[in-house]
Amino acid sequence: MAVAAAEGGSELRLLGTWSSPWVIRVRVALGLKGLSYDYTEEDLAAKSDLLLRSNPVHKKVPVLIHGGRPVCESLVIVEYVDEAWPAAGPPLLPSDPYDRATARFWAAYVNDTFFPSWKALFRSTAEEQRAEAFKNAVPAVETLERAFRDCSKGKAFFGGDAVGLVDVALGSHLVWIRVVDEVAGTNLLDGAKFPGLAAWAERFLAVDAVRKVMPDVRKVLEQYKGFLAKWIAAAGST
């Protein structure tokens, strides 16, 4: 992506991989703020020296480099973008301290509770295994349905009228959720069971800043089928 300099002439560069939900979070946040940046696609099988220098602890993407200084971890980067450019675009965190704490709590819930439960479904390669993993993931979705009702207060997003931190945290997984559903024959965000989340997902995916960076479902499906083939082959060789 060829881009101009960010506000104040500071250079912004994002190291990422095209299908990563964690990278998508950052790209959505940058888009919502209207910030320009250079994007570098990393090969995680042969990580660049820049990535290894910029994130020596975890050696993972995303990394946002702002004026030569790296910021690591997706939710940390999203908050950094919000704080570093408060006047650019809508705020991603509310101004009220309690509401900010609530948003951080639910963003952490997505990372620490929802994602691990869903990852078991993502990694499942057999029908029985998928059925069990799906059953175990549903309670986390039930909790998020209630959280959406409480956080949105009847508005369009977790953040209210506009996309906020929790929307970005959960929404970055939506394409992957749909791809896994297609392969597994599941429907995690079932509109009959979870009407709030199902409608929210459609609204989130329709936001311009989201549409511009969300990967193509067919490409993600192809990648996922490749992962499954490798996992099945590895299981068969043990």
Explained architecture:
The protein has about 240 residues and is an alpha+beta fold. It folds into two domains: about 5-85, Glutaredoxin (3-Layer(aba) Sandwich); about 95-220, Glutathione S-transferase Yfyf (Class Pi), Chain A, domain 2 (Up-down Bundle), CATH 1.20.1050. It is built from ten helices and four strands; from the N terminus they run E-H-E-H-E-E-H-H-H-H-H-H-H-H. The chain has helices spanning about 20-30, 50-55, 75-85, 95-125, 125-150, 165-170, 175-185, 195-205, 210, 215-235; strands at about 10-15, 40, 65, 70. The protein has a four-stranded mixed sheet with strand order 2-1-3-4, covered by helices on one side. The protein is globular. Mean pLDDT is about 95; it is low at about 1-10.
